[in-house]
Amino acid sequence: MKKILIATEKPFAADAVKGIKDIFDMAGYEVRLLEGYTDQEVLKAAVKDIEGLIVRSDIIGPAIMDAAPELKIIVRAGAGYDNIDLAAATEHGIVVMNTPGQNANAVAELVIGMLIYTIRNRFNGKSGTELMGKKLGLLAFGAVAQNLARIAHGLGMDISSYSPLNRPQKIIDAGYHVHESLQALFAFNQIVSLHMPSTPATRHSIGYDLVSSMRPDGILVNTARQDVIDEPGLLRALVERKDLRYVTDLKLACHDEAVEKLGDRYIFTPKKMGAQTKEANVNAGLAAAQQIVSFFEDGVKKFQVNK
Ligand code: 3PG
Fold first, then answer.
1. Which of 178, 182, 218, 292 would be 168's cystine partner, CB 3.0–4.6 Å?
2. Model pTM greater than 0.85?
3. Structural domain that includes position 50
């Protein structure tokens, strides 16, 4: 009987866990659940005889793979897979997949929620502003950005985007303005929302020059990854420009310094919340389970990311 582990430091909603278990039960696999663990040693012990692994943002490096000699497949239930060491997985003969798009709507809705909270002054009673008519710039135009554009369009926002991979066709097809450069995106929009993955090219790519070029009362939103920010540059720009705000689902590494220097212009969730809805957990979790069954039963490798 194949042994599968669901290892989630940040647990899925109960409905998702049940749905995942049902899929594996039907396939005749054994499922184990490791939730809310805080120690990598606990994860190491849990993987020793498993063949399939479902994770979220859990860090999976060579030490975990060394401890899992039977492991054939890891599915990251979500879009970004920068938490998994792909080179090490390939060396260990392990297939890595993601479940792209499955939690995109949840992240897009969080962006809107955080923006309204921000421009209504955290609901503190003072007069705020509205999203209608505001310019929203999307950095990259993948699944999250496309969902955000759909919702923002309904709110009457003026949407434009820049494709860092220079593949603007989707933006054009959706009918939005395409920026020719990152600089143009930041200089044009009052609100800029980041939707690129964390890669060597994007890490620390958003810093002083871009942020300080933002329009008056600019808001930078980050529901992508913490490490795409050049933190000293961001902080310097926000300290100089008292009209700018930074809204994020990923607390800065220099969190305490940012709280001290920026006060209520630094708006953050206590824990990464973008994909934390029942619907997103069910979508991504069940997709992950199905991908594991298809891989073992039929050799299907769609969504493999370590080719
Ligand atoms: C993703 O890449 O899919 C999101 O960042 C969600 O991450 P999470 O599963 O840790 O909430």
1. 178
2. yes
3. 3-102+277-298
